[in-house]
Amino acid sequence: xxxxxxxxxxxxxxxxxxxxxxxxxxxxxxxxxxxxxxxxxxxxxxxxxxxxxxxxxxxxxxxxxxxxxxxxxxxxxxxxxxxxxxxxxxxxxxxxxxxxxxxxxxxxxxxxxxxxxxxxxxxxxxxxxxxxxxxxxxxxxxxxxxxxxxxxxxxxxxxxxxxxxxxxxxxxxxxxxxxxxxxxxxxxxxxxxxxxxxxxxxxxxxxxxxxxxxxxxxxxxxxxxxxxxxxxxxxxxxxxxxxxxxxxxxxxxxxxxxxxxxxxxxxxxxxxxxxxxxxxxxxxxxxxxxxxxxxxxxxxxxxxxxxxxxxxxxxxxxxxxx
Length: 322
Description:
By secondary structure, this protein is α+β, with helices and mostly antiparallel strands. It has helices at 2-11, 20-27, 31-43, 67-70, 92-101, 151-168, 228-232, 238-259, 262-271, and strands at residues 47-51, 55-60, 83-89, 109-115, 133-140, 173-175, 179-182, 185-196, 201-211, 278-283, 286-295, 301-304, 310-313, 317-320. It has a 7-stranded mixed β-sheet with strand order 3-4-5-9-8-7-6, with helices on both faces. A 5-stranded antiparallel β-sheet has the order 13-12-11-10-14, with no helix packed on it. The chain has a two-stranded antiparallel sheet with strand order 1-2. A hairpin with a 5-residue loop joins β11 and β12 (301-304).
């Protein structure tokens, strides 16, 4: 009922007030019940003017990633069928994995205003301040073998890059496998996790954090990160950007299920800033220097050493060398 009342207020925003009596008659509840829902909306940040004998008028909508704000913008059939919004949680990946274990359907998303323990690849912390970015995870249940799940990491990077380009007009470069950089600074990081048996995937989670409104970063990343609003010099709607990214994830995911990894790989190569560059790949127990020459059919990075030998790597942290 709360969301329906909000919809009516939005529809009458230009016309003026909606009477409490009209709302109570429409929903067949008392005016006190209507008032309680209005109070909750105000607590959520909606500016609603209340005048006796006139009713209620919506003045302003908060910049929050509520389900009722995202749902009307979605152009998807699968992604976003269930939306769980939180003001603050440890991390969206942690919460969505719990939901997945309890049977949540494919397409479920978890989004929050602030992560208290946001995380990136290799156990790194991800700075996720309140209202400054998009901290979101998407649940997928593909019928694929576990060894192919890493391809969805690259798919996620492509989808987010496309969404940012389409909504903000900013073209970001993908540093293998899934960091999005603009002007050499990170605007987005992705973390893909999965639960699988030996011969099947139960679910895959694609989590992404996008710096949208940040003006300050932790000291250790201040010289390495940048926000989208810093780049465009104007306000960006987080809810419109999220809706665009979710649409891109769905279209690429369906393409992957129908045609395999090849079209995703081609898109990744168009956005990439890794191939042809001198790189250093670091992972537990090894450090490899060479030139990134191509992306393999499984999403692995092929590096040519200074001796001319080529080796494929499925994981690791890449540093681009100038």
